[in-house]
Amino acid sequence: MQYITIKEGVASLIDRGELTANKKLPTERALAEQFQTTRVTLREALTTLEAEGKIHREDRRGWFVSPPSMIYDPTSTNNFNVMASKCGFVPSSKLIQAKQVGASQEVAELLNVPVDTQVYRIDRLRMLDDRPVVVTFNYVIMENFPGLLEHDIESSLTDVYRDQYQKPYAKTHFQIKTSSLLGETAQLLRASTGSPAMLVQRVNYCAEGVLLDCDIEFWRPHAIKIESTASVITTTKNN
Amino acid sequence: MQYITIKEGVASLIDRGELTANKKLPTERALAEQFQTTRVTLREALTTLEAEGKIHREDRRGWFVSPPSMIYDPTSTNNFNVMASKCGFVPSSKLIQAKQVGASQEVAELLNVPVDTQVYRIDRLRMLDDRPVVVTFNYVIMENFPGLLEHDIESSLTDVYRDQYQKPYAKTHFQIKTSSLLGETAQLLRASTGSPAMLVQRVNYCAEGVLLDCDIEFWRPHAIKIESTASVITTTKNN
DNA sequence: GAGTGGTCTAGACCACCGT
DNA sequence: CGGTGGTCTAGACCACTCA
């Protein structure tokens, strides 16, 4: 298992400080020569390091040492900007598109509406210190937010919900699993097709329990650490 | 991007029902021939499908169609057995080892104690329908549970905490990120070295806020879907 | 013992990035 | 435009699984 040795070799380059956060690793051909192996085996080693979040790829640009990840609390109403700032990053957002669409099967299930129900769809790319880290797809129940697309929705939807419509989030249901990045989502994140991803799906409700929207988020795994505290509901023994 | 086509080809075999849950895929050589490619490219395709949770590898045994995943609520005190049963699986556990050790750097930070503080360490392998899905490492503050190792700790620590010591969980702090499986952990899960994993770390407290234990869990990604509902704490605008 | 997956070699071509 | 990463080929050997 030569690739494990190589993996540890590269990891020690990082731990020893010869490679620092956001720095590009040497070219694959140079690393392959340095570790006396071929590119295929080298990439096996780098892919494993990537799975551990220590390094990541930028499509056609090479491998980079991953900086500390942002702490993401799915149970908080804090939006991306607030969570990023708390972790010492400079957040930014880019609106990819915003339009009215019919709900797909997946979205219809999340929003608990029939397929093809008209909803607002808002696609955004978000960055930390100008590094793209997540693509979000929001789907919004139209009747709760008439004329939503006329507001400034690039930065924070939660702010608009609260300030323009007096409908802040009060409850959220979230799902987290692993996935992969494909197509335009991968491109926006400067990731190679098929790169691993963290998939976060949320359904958000306001104080009265009314369903407001859902969002589907594709995160670069190295950029996120999910963290939260919960007071647990003790269930009876016979549950 | 031939491997994307192959990936979709294999995915459609599954969606069309030609391959069903827990069934072994044809051998790599057979699939490579079927899709007119080499094993290297085929494995690229299968690895991407694995990242999406549709299939998984068992070390030296081949690729298998992944069954539905278990829904895991990190904010719940429900233990593994309860969560598994709710999802229709038959849970089982195997005690790997239980002993007294000095806290490592990582564990010391989680438990907020000095390095080398004596703690109980309990390693277990847990299965759904006899498929190994997670390896858990529990580290327990000794003074809260004197003589803990004399109880039946194979199945459920939370039950022992509650029934034998009257100290149920009341609060939990959790972290989730991606990682990879190595060494004995990989072997226990019948996974290949370097396979992707979901890493869940928890710190658990009792009602009085006393820190009880922490656990570090390495999950097979295909076997778990994290899901929870939270009433969110609305923060002020100037936070 | 046959066949499988795990690992590795030694190349190749191309599109694209950065200069 | 040179060099890089993305992708692919056509093999090989070995340890291990399974029949």
From TrEMBL, chains A, B:
Residues 1-68 form the HTH gntR-type domain. The keyword Transcription applies. Gene3D superfamilies: Chorismate lyase-like (3.40.1410.10), Winged helix-like DNA-binding domain superfamily/Winged helix DNA-binding domain (1.10.10.10). Transmembrane segments: none annotated. One of its GO terms (molecular function) is DNA binding. The keyword Transcription regulation applies. It comes from the Bacteria. This is GntR family transcriptional regulator. It comes from Marinomonas rhizomae.
